[in-house]
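Continuing the series of single-chain predictions for the mutant panel. This is the parent chain; the variants come on the following pages.
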Amino acid sequence: MTKHSPVACLSKAALFTDLPIDLKKKLVAVSTHQQKFPKGSIIRQPDDGKDGKEVVLGIPQKGDIEGQQHLFKQSENENFVEAVEDTWVCSINRADFQKLLQKTPDLSLKLLNNFGKKLVAIEHNSVLRNTLDAKERILAYLNDLANEQGKNEVKLELKKKDLASYLGITPETFSRKLKELEKDGKIEVHGRWINVKR
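Parent structure:
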């Protein structure tokens, strides 16, 4: 088993990925790493104690992140999280996180700037979804990715089904339109790598 790296673990959360290493280390200091939850134990539960209908919303896999939004807003509407097998969890307590934000203005500013970038990206994606057809949407997204990475060959980090959902189309349409774009000579597809012709 490989040694657990708290900084690498924390970096998996989109919220913290782009932070400089010194700020990540400050976050690690207020984090709990590799806490074991045996199979069947409750990892997290709502605070309101209300009974309700049980619905499985998803089964997180190794490395998945859950609940970043609760670091900023206390919510009584949280979901139950149960360990379906022996599970190791890394977490940050909301109160500790909030105290760190108050003491570390540079962390607050970096996170605020990250949120700003995300809002711009969401607005841009909304325009793409509402004004372009599926093929144009995919090509616009790939061009944006190429511009962002500064090269014509880009790697799709998201699974194709997740990317299709992000662009507001079905996975089948995404695959079909990707093939059409390749046939049109606009792109070359090599697995998860796509060469954008410009």
